[in-house]
Amino acid sequence: MPTSIWTRHHVLSLADFTSAEYNTVLQTAASFREVLSRRTKKVPTLQGQVVANLFFEPSTRTRSSFELAAKRLSADTLNFAAATSSLTKGETILDTAKTYLAMGTDMMVIRHREAGVPQAIAAEMDRLGVRVGVLNAGDGQHEHPSQALLDLFTICTILDPDQPRLELLQGKKIAIVGDILHSRVARSNIWSLTASGAEVHLAAPPTLLPQLFAEFVSDDGRAGGAGEKPQIQNRKLFVHWTVEPALQDADFVMTLRLQKERMTQHLLPSLREYHHRFGITRDRLKLCQPNVKVLHPGPVNRGVEISSELMDNPQFSLISEQVTSGVAVRMALLYLMGSSKV
Amino acid sequence: MPTSIWTRHHVLSLADFTSAEYNTVLQTAASFREVLSRRTKKVPTLQGQVVANLFFEPSTRTRSSFELAAKRLSADTLNFAAATSSLTKGETILDTAKTYLAMGTDMMVIRHREAGVPQAIAAEMDRLGVRVGVLNAGDGQHEHPSQALLDLFTICTILDPDQPRLELLQGKKIAIVGDILHSRVARSNIWSLTASGAEVHLAAPPTLLPQLFAEFVSDDGRAGGAGEKPQIQNRKLFVHWTVEPALQDADFVMTLRLQKERMTQHLLPSLREYHHRFGITRDRLKLCQPNVKVLHPGPVNRGVEISSELMDNPQFSLISEQVTSGVAVRMALLYLMGSSKV
Amino acid sequence: MPTSIWTRHHVLSLADFTSAEYNTVLQTAASFREVLSRRTKKVPTLQGQVVANLFFEPSTRTRSSFELAAKRLSADTLNFAAATSSLTKGETILDTAKTYLAMGTDMMVIRHREAGVPQAIAAEMDRLGVRVGVLNAGDGQHEHPSQALLDLFTICTILDPDQPRLELLQGKKIAIVGDILHSRVARSNIWSLTASGAEVHLAAPPTLLPQLFAEFVSDDGRAGGAGEKPQIQNRKLFVHWTVEPALQDADFVMTLRLQKERMTQHLLPSLREYHHRFGITRDRLKLCQPNVKVLHPGPVNRGVEISSELMDNPQFSLISEQVTSGVAVRMALLYLMGSSKV
C-alpha cells in the first residue's frame, strides 16, 4: 500500500490535508474493502498492538466501527467509557490519556463533547516524545475527520469503484443540508469536499448556520438565492437559507442529523416544520441530477432529515454503504498512523 | 459434525423445531463440550467472523455466555448495550441492526424486552437478501430458545452422557414450577420437552398461569388435581394450580425465576407465601423419583423458588451444569447457523 | 521463569507473602516488562484460558490494566460490570462467581467495595475443589495486593533495573502520606515494604489514621514526632501526625488518593487545608534524600495530595512508571497463578 508519503501520527482535522493524503487514504481503504469481502476478514497488520477507544462522549455506533476496524487489523482493543471512569473521581482528561499511554497503548481514538480535546492529547503525546497516534473521533462541534473521509470514500467509490480518488469530484455539485451550525461532520466534510474541487452548497435555516457564513449568503438569501461571494481561498463554497438552490442539479446530497434539543433551544419551530422546509424527499430530489445519491452520517431521525421511504431506497440511499465504508476507512487510518511510526 | 441436515440461518423459536434439529444441536453441543474439557478450549471455526451481541435488555450472564461461546469459536465479538446507544437518540431498532449488518456482522444475538424483535430483525435480513444469522436470546415473554436447548442438553446428558438425544426423554415426567405466565424460558421449554415425548406438568398459582392454559386445568384444579384434557396436538401437557401433583413421580423439576415486581403487581401475596406453596425443598422432592434433578435458569432468588440448601446440593441441583452446558450449546448454535451459510 | 516455588492459586493479601514469593513476582514481572518492550507485545502463555474481571465496584483504570495483562498473555477476557448485572436481580455474589466458574473461567479478578469478598469467593472455589485462581483487585478498605506489588516493582526497578529484588529496600526509608484510614493500597504496601526491611513512616491527620495505630504515635505525636514504639513483629513501622518527620531523609514518598467525600464526613476541614499540611510539593521534598522519588496509585487530585508541577516532573514522579509496571506485574501474577494449576 502507498504509505511512503504518509507522515502523520495523528489524524485530528482535515483542514490541512493534502490531495496526496486524501488519495492515500482512499487507495488504502479500497485495499481493505477488498479484505472485507473475503471470508476471513482479518489481517495481522497490528498484531500485538493496542488501540484504546477513549470515548468521553458515548457512541456505540462509532465505537463499534473503530473496535471492529482495530480487531480486523488484529490489534487488541481497550474501551474506556466515561460513565464508569475516574473522571468522576477528579482526574483530568490528560491524566487519563497518560494512564493509557503508560499501559502501553499504541493508538488512541478519542471522542469528547468539547472541541480541542483530541488535539490537546496529541500535543501532550508529542511533548512527551512518544510516538502514539491520536485519532479524533469527534470533538464538540469542531471536526469528525474519519466520518468525512468515509463519506468521501463512499462518494468516490460510486464514481469509480476500482480507483476511488479525489479528482473524481472535480466539477461535481454536493449539497449539505441541515444543522450546519452544530455539525462537526459538516465542518470536516467542507474541508475534504472543497479540497476536491467540488462545488459545495450548504442549506440550513439561518438559526442553524454559523455566523461565519452569514456574509456568504446572497442578498436574496432569505429567498434562497445562491451566495454571491462563494470563493474562500479558491474553495467553491455556497450558502443558502433554503434547500432548493442547493439541491438544483446536485450530484450528491448529504443530510445531517438534527438534534432534538435544538427545539427546546428555540432554534427551530418544530420537527414537522423542519421536515416541511428542509427534509429530503423523493419529490425534492427531482431538482437534482437523475443519478443523485443521498448520504447521512446516522443515526437518522426518520421522517425529519430524510423521508423514511427515501432512506430505505437503495437507488438513492448510500447510508448502508457509508457504514460499510466506515470500517475500511478506519482500518486504513489506523494502518497509516501505525506505519508512520516505523 | 452432523450439519448436513441443518438449514436454519436463524434460531428464533422452538415452535417448529424438528426432532432431527434437536438431535443435531444435542450432538454438536456434545462435541463442543469435549472441546471445553481440553486445556486449550478454542477452535478456529469462526475465525474472521463477527458475532454482535445486541442486548437491548441488559443481561450480563447471558451476554457473557454468548460472548465466550463466540470467542471459543475464534470469532470477533461486538457488544451493544442499550443504555449508551443511539436508541436514546431516536434511531429505530431495525436501523441499529442494519448498521451492524453494514459494518460486516455475520451473526446477531438479540435480546429485547418486547416479543417479536428478533423475528422482525431476521425478517429484515432475509428481505435484504443477506445471509446473516439472527439468534433470539430472549424476547419479552415469548421465547428464549438457547436456554431451553441448554436445559434439554443438560437433561439428556444426565440420561446418557455420551449420546444425548431427544428420545431419552420419552415417558419421562418433567415438572415446570413457577411464574409460567411471564416466562419465555417456560414457553421455549414446553416446545422442546413436549416434542421429546416427555410428560410436561406445569404448576403455578392461577394468577401466574396464561389464560390459554385455563381450560387444561381439571375441575379439581384448585385442589391441585392433574388436568383432564392434557393433549395438545399429541403433546402431553398438564396444568396444575398446586405443586404436589406436578412433582409426583417427576424425573426432573424445572423451577422458574420469580420477578419480585410480581408482588407490587398484586399477582402474589408475598415471597414467603410463594415459597410456602411452590418453593422446591428437599422435603417436597420426596414426592419425585429418587434420582430427581432440579434445574433453574438463574439468577436464583435463594429461598424463594428453591431452598438455599437444595440449590447447593450437587446430588439434586443441575444449576451449574446448566451454565456449563450453555456455552457448549451456544457454540453449537453459532456453529450450525454459520455453516448453514455456505 | 522461576515458578517452581510458586504454590498460590489465589492472590488475596500480602499479609503472609514470603520473601521468596515477593522475589518471584519481581523477577517474573521483569521478564514480562522485557516482552512489553518488543514490537509484538504478546506471548501465548494463557491461550484458550479465560480471565473474568468481576468488578462489583467500577474502576476503568484497574480493569483496563488487568484486561490488557490478560490479553497480552493471549487469554480471552470477560468483563462483568456490576451496574448491568443480575445483582440488581437479587443473586448473591457467590452465585455470580459460581456462574462464571461454570462457564469455564480459569481465573477471576475481583473488586468489591466490601472487605473480604475475594477471600469468600476463593474459599468457595477451594470448597468446590476447583483450581480456579482468585485475585483480589481491591476489597473495601482491606487490601489491594497487585497495586502494592506494582509499587514494589517500580521502586526496586529504580534501585536495580536488571534485577529488581526485595533486599534492595533494606535500610531504605519510605514515607506513606495521606488517608491511611481508608486506604487498601496503604494496607497492602505496609505489608510488602516492612517485609523488605525498609523503614516505613506513615503520616496522616489523626482523623485519617486507623485507631490501631494510635498507640504507635509518640507523645509528641501532635507535634509530629516519630513514634516511639515502632516495632511490630520486627517490622519497622512509624506513625506521625505531621508530614515532616516522615519525609525527613526519605528515599521514596508514596502519596495516597484523598476521597473528596472525606470532607462531607467532617474528617477534613478542606482540600486546601489538607494540601497546606500534607500535600507533597517540591519544597517539602527538600527534607528527603536528594534522589527521592514520589509515587501515587492514581487517579490523582492535582494540587491536593501532590502539587501539579511535581506530578509532571519526571525527575521525581514515578506515576507513569507505576502504570507501566502495573501491566507487567499483573501479567506476572496471572502467569504464576495459572502455572500453579499444573
| Beta-strand content of chain A | 5-15%
Give the count of structural domains of chain A: 2
Mean pLDDT of chain A: 90
User: Treating each run of at least 4 consecutive H or I residues as one helix, how many helices of chain A?
Assistant: 12
Order of helices and strands of chain A: HEHEHEHEHEHEEEHEHHHEHH
What's the alpha carbon Rg of chain A, rounded to whole Å?
20 Å
The CATH superfamily of the largest domain in chain A is: Aspartate/ornithine carbamoyltransferase
| Secondary structure tally: strands of chain A | 10
Contiguous uncertain segments of 5+ residues of chain A: 218-231
Largest sheet of chain A: 6 strands, mixed
Secondary-structure class of chain A = alpha/beta
Shape of chain A: globular
CATH class of the largest domain in chain A: Alpha Beta
Strand order of the largest sheet of chain A: 7-8-6-5-9-10
* Largest interface, counted by CB within 8 Å of the partner chain's CB: A-C, 25 and 32 residues
- Provide the helix percentage of chain A: 25-40%
How many angstroms does the end-to-end distance of chain A come to? 15 Å
Oligomer: homotrimer
CATH architecture annotation name of the largest domain in chain A: 3-Layer(aba) Sandwich
What would you note in describing this structure?
- With 342 residues, the first copy, chain A, is of the alpha/beta class.
- The first copy, chain A, has two domains: 19-144 and 325-339, Rossmann fold (3-Layer(aba) Sandwich), CATH 3.40.50; 146-322, Rossmann fold.
- Chain A is built from twelve helices and ten strands.
- The first copy, chain A, has helices at residues 19-36, 60-72, 93-103, 117-127, 145-159, 184-195, 244-247, 261-264, 271-278, 282-285, 308-311, 319-339; strands at residues 50-55, 76-81, 107-112, 133-139, 173-177, 199-203, 231-232, 235-240, 252-255, 293-295.
- In chain A, the strands form two sheets. Chain A has a six-stranded mixed beta sheet with strand order 7-8-6-5-9-10.
- In chain A, helix 6 (184-195) links the parallel strand 5 (173-177) and strand 6 (199-203).
- The model of chain A is unreliable at 218-231 (pLDDT under 50).
- The interface between A and C is medium-sized, with 25 and 32 residues.
